[in-house]
Amino acid sequence: MASLRPLRTHPLPKTFFTASARSLATVSPTSSSTSKNDTGTAIVLLNMGGPSTIPEVSTFLSRLFADADLIPLGPLQKYLGPLIARRRTPKIEAQYTVIGGGSPIRRWSEIQAQGACKILDLSHPATAPHKPYVAFRYADPITEDTFLAMKRDGVRRAVAFTQYPQYSCSTTGSSLNELWRLAKKYDPEGQIEWSVIDRWPTHPGLVSVVARHVEEKLATYPADRRDNVVLLFSAHSLPMSVVNRGDPYPAEVAATVHAVMEKLGFKNAHRLVWQSQVGPSPWLGAQTSNTVESYVKKGQTDLLLIPIAFTSDHIETLHELDLEIIEETGQEGIKRAESLNGDPEFIQALADIAKSHLEGTQRSSKQMALRCPMCVSARCEAQKNFFATGKHPE
Ligand code: FES
Question: 64, 179, 250, 251 - which has most CB atoms within 10 Å?
């Protein structure tokens, strides 16, 4: 296990200090004087994470390929996972080297968590102070370390806030399975009371900031070409075995795309495409790279790629989209919309989502309790019982 470290404090990006947010700059996430709750509320951002440095790559990949929720490799997972991780390590290390020596996801997640908590302290003082935590599934700060830090900090009320806007059992489900396992192991007495923000695919704040990023990039095309740019919304793909189990992710990603297109007035043609397939088994397509290649061959060389399922830049945007696809094609008309990262409107959206959740009476969304039609996992059943009903693990 990696050593325990408190959440790093990052200076918020300059753009955070907009007129509407400037007054928040001096407010500490733990400084509310109107708190009715001494220990406040932990806001725990869940995500897969990424290696912040090159030496962390091999551990990251080992954890990733060991997770059958994310990459189901069948009964041989225990042997195949480490083998694939070892084989892929040098190539992935080289990719992280090219994008600056590591993934920026930890930095962005910490900025987002701190920013959202500062806003929440003002907008929802009843549950202040709001304490930011980040819990990654495969990289530091790994979920186990964060869980132990929360116990040590005396946390009694926590919100697990997925940073996958669209729910998949491979991603959010995997993080919640891990949290459930840790609650069973380290918190059998139920010191921490959990609730979950398990999905937010069409939240107006998310839709608005993605649409604005699209508009900003479209404005960089000559006016006479702008309306004919094809918008390619790109999301991480899923193995077809997961899709056919009845995973909600493809429908929820499509819902985000539709909401963004509605906001944009459907003024450009668009497609939803899928990236980052691994291994030979069938995955959900069409693949982003094949789509770009095919459209270019058909003469459509103005294409705008839009990351639609990530809340910050990481290797899938900075290497796969920017270098492997956009730079490789050598077409000046192929561009990418900005990721959400430290955009103040996005951080405000995170705070608004958390505020609505804290004001509500539900532990999770209604969807959360429903298992995939073909799910046979007892762990899913126990995890959903725990988070949707508060029933403590036995
Ligand atoms: Fe979806 Fe179990 S795999 S609920």
Answer: 179
Give the span between the Cα atoms of 122 and 74, in whole angstroms.
Answer: 48
Q: Which ligand 1 atom is at minimum distance from the Cα of 246?
A: 1
Closest residue by CA, ligand 1 atom 3:
375
Ligand 1: residues whose CB is within 6 Å?
Answer: 169, 173, 245, 371-372, 375, 377, 380
| 204-336 CATH fold | Rossmann fold (3.40.50)
Closest C-alpha residue for ligand 1 atom 1: 372
Domain boundaries, the chain: 16-200+344-389, 204-336
CB atoms within 10 A of CB 281: 13
Atom of ligand 1 nearest to the CA of 376: 2
Model-level pTM? Answer: 0.89
% of the chain at pLDDT higher than 70: 90
Q: How confident is the model at residue 72 (pLDDT cuts 50, 70, 90)?
A: confident
359 falls in which pLDDT band (50, 70, 90)?
Answer: very high
Residue owning the nearest CA to atom 4 of ligand 1:
371
Residue 24 CA to residue 8 CA, distance in Å, equals 19
By most ligand atoms within 8 Å of CB, the mutation choice from 175, 242, 249, 380 for ligand 1 is 380
pLDDT above 80 for 36: no
How large is the angle between the packed helices 204-218 and 249-263, nearest 10 degrees? 60
User: Does the pLDDT of residue 13 top 50, yes or no?
Assistant: no
Q: Is a pLDDT exceeding 50 seen at residue 388?
A: yes
**Annotation says 352 is catalytic:** yes
Residue 346: pLDDT above 70?
A: yes
Q: Average per-residue pLDDT in the chain? A: 89
pLDDT over 50 at 17, yes or no: no
- Domain 16-200+344-389 bears CATH identifier 3.40.50.1400: yes
Chain centroid to CA 269: 26
Domain 16-200+344-389 identical in fold to domain 204-336: yes
The one catalytic residue among 124, 203, 236, 319: 203
Asked if 153 is an active-site residue, the reply is no
